[in-house]
Write a structure and sequence with these properties.
mainly alpha, 262 residues
């Protein structure tokens, strides 16, 4: 059940609230979105709420990166072992990796520019959108959340910040892949050994190829939860402002420019 059901009479809509989350258009910096796509293919598109494309690029990055030994090569190059870094790469997979990696960066930048234009048109059109959704599985509604709380929960465990701001699909995806990265990287086993003072054993047990996925995963979860908390708060304020204006503001009220109110 929604508090407002549109008849698709507008050319563009600014937001949509469902039991799975709040999807909205807002202005974004194309360079920041492209940077996230460069950090990890798929993240830029997920920030744009283009989940299907983002999920495909994310899974492709994990699969092809592992098969091509890209992370292994990066680690060896950091250690100054350039020849070994070159030898460890599997060119059969690497030649597929580079074009799609560049496509993810370019497409996220291009899409951001387009969505910014659509947002400005939707903002000018000012069509209504639902702000409350009630279903058998969940309830979602626009309200104000604290961005720093979203960041704090994302620091504890990536995905919890998304649950706090009700981004269910993104939260499930982030938590699922966090478990995958933790399991294959043996990071928790390494932390346990580190607490016991067994530094060499802790270093030896880590699988670097999987471990390198984790910092980007944490960073994205933190940034996504913070940014969407801020934008959802703005959307709530706009919706509340429109409601109060429609139901409580005198229709004869006018703001007079360049005149002082006595």
């Amino acid at each position: 059940m929604d508090n407002y059901t549109n008849q698709n009479t507008a050319r563009r809509y600014k937001a949509h609230v469902s039991i799975y989350g709040t999807t909205q258009l807002h202005l974004r910096n194309p360079y920041i979105i492209a940077w996230w796509s460069a950090a990890f293919p798929g993240f830029g598109h997920m920030l744009l709420s283009k989940y299907l494309r983002g999920y495909v690029l994310f899974i492709w990055e994990v699969l092809v990166n592992i098969k091509a030994h890209v992370n292994d090569s990066m680690i060896l190059s950091f250690q100054g072992k350039t020849e070994l870094a070159t030898e460890v790469l599997d060119t059969r997979w690497l030649l597929m990796y580079i074009p799609v990696y560049l496509f993810g960066i370019w497409d996220s930048y291009r899409t951001t520019v387009d969505i910014n234009k659509v947002y400005l048109l939707a903002e000018n059109e000012g069509h209504r959108y639902n702000s409350f959704a009630l279903g058998a599985l969940e309830i979602n509604y626009l309200d104000k959340r604290k961005p720093l709380l979203a960041v704090m929960w994302s620091l504890f465990t990536p995905g919890l910040g998304q649950l706090y701001i009700h981004r269910i699909l993104t939260a499930f995806f982030i938590i699922f892949w966090l478990v995958v990265f933790f399991y294959f990287s043996h990071i928790q086993e390494a932390i346990s050994l580190l607490f016991l003072g067994k530094i060499k054993e802790a270093t030896a047990v880590i699988k670097p190829a999987w471990f390198l996925f984790i910092p980007s995963h944490y960073g994205f979860a933190i940034y996504d939860s913070y940014m969407n908390s801020v934008e959802n708060n703005k959307l709530f304020e706009k919706d509340l402002r429109s409601y109060l204006k429609e139901h409580y503001q005198n229709e004869n009220f006018r703001i007079l420019k360049d005149q002082k109110v006595k």
